[in-house]
Amino acid sequence: MSEFGHRRVADGSGQPKIKIGWSGERITVVFQYNPDYISNMKTIKGYRWHPEEKCWSVPYPELQRLLSIFDGNRLEIDPEVWLYELEKELLRRKYSPKTVKAYLYYNKELLRFAGKNPSELENKDVKEYLFHLVSEKEAAASTLNIAINALKFYYGKVLKKRFIYEVVRPKKDRRLPVVLNEEEISSILSSTNNIKHKLILMLIYSAGLRVSEVVSLKSEDIDEERKLIYIRRAKGRKDRYTILSDVALRMMKIYINEYGQSKWLFPGSDREKHITTRTVEKIFSDACKRANIKKDVTVHSLRHSFATHLLESGTDLRYIQELLGHKSSKTTEIYTHVSSRDIGRIKSPLDNLKIGVGGEGGHEDG
């Protein structure tokens, strides 16, 4: 019998529990001292004993051999053990680090939730897990769709199982992006005195960048003459160009003069690595607090604001789609629902009524 997390109740055999985990590209095995267990471990090709960690390890290809020699024992298997092949396949297909992390996460959570290994899973386990995400985790439709994509990839493409295709996708929530007006953008940028921080926020807003794109910019990606920024391997592994603002370019020259040139436009504390997305999120959050922004915004709201402000200034939606790197025009069309260019011209019927407000009229109840 296998155990995942705390969902399986151990049998009453009194046998010492064997914990099977994952470290790098090797399987780890931990158990209390037992001469028979030790003898079994030494029959596995490539076994190692690690005295400091007090555990054994075996190469991944020996997984089935490991399970067979301990068949009938109480095993507690970390779900990560099963997902090595999934990770390899995702990396082989050059999925983004963010997608790899998400796919591994949801598959790991499903195994922990169901308390089974992948070969034991049934369609009802998947449906119960998705229901758990909705009812207990209050997951949005977009989150459920990511989870379904993750499970379909593993069970459909890697393990070649068909049951996963019976899962019905939820309809996407129709949520409009939160957009900052121009005064709010100015307040956020003005609240930041650090040149590096100010330039990062300027570039995100002025060029419509994703946070993952701004952190991975290199100095060579800035085309000063053509006033363009080259975005490498953006979402969907696509390259694109977007615009370079004159104001942002002037700030960039001041920044480079003070901080110097390096491999990355925005290096971290280790100059061989770029600044992290988490750091940029913190920079934006702090700037919003100083600017007294009350809206529920994230750093991605700067990208939304870029698109909306371009639309309101009369830029064709097709050009905005190109600058943002959207594959489908339908994705870009969401900004027509938050733009005030046309909606702002519509006069409310209330304004046609002769009703006094405040000091303009009397009060019935005095």
Task: Explain what you see.
- It contains 15 helices and nine strands.
- A six-stranded mixed β-sheet has the order 1-6-2-3-5-4, with no helix packed on it. Strands 7-8-9 form a three-stranded antiparallel β-sheet.
- With 366 residues, it is α+β, with helices and mostly antiparallel strands.
- Strand 4 (48-50) and strand 5 form a beta hairpin.
- 43% of the residues lie in helices and 9% in strands.
- The radius of gyration is 28 Å and the shape is elongated.
- Helix 4 (97-114) packs across helix 6 (141-158), helix 5 (123-135) runs antiparallel to helix 6 and helix 8 (195-207) crosses helix 12 (300-312).
Q: How would you classify the helix and strand content by structural class? A: alpha+beta
Helix percent reads 40-55%
SSE sequence, one letter per element = EEEHEEHEHHHHHHHEEEHHHHHH
Mean pLDDT: 83
The best one-word shape is elongated
Spans of at least 5 consecutive residues with low confidence: 1-13, 360-366
* CA gyration radius, whole angstroms: 28 Å
Number of helices: 15
- First and last CA, distance: 78 Å
**CATH topological fold name of the largest domain:** hpI Integrase, Chain A
CATH class category label of the largest domain = Mainly Alpha
Instruction: Write down the domain tally.
Output: 3
CATH homologous superfamily placement of the largest domain? Intergrase catalytic core
* Number of strand segments: 9
Largest sheet, in brief, is: 6 strands, mixed
How much beta, percentage-wise?
Answer: 5-15%
Strand order of the largest sheet: 1-6-2-3-5-4
Q: At CATH's second level, what is the architecture of the largest domain?
A: Orthogonal Bundle
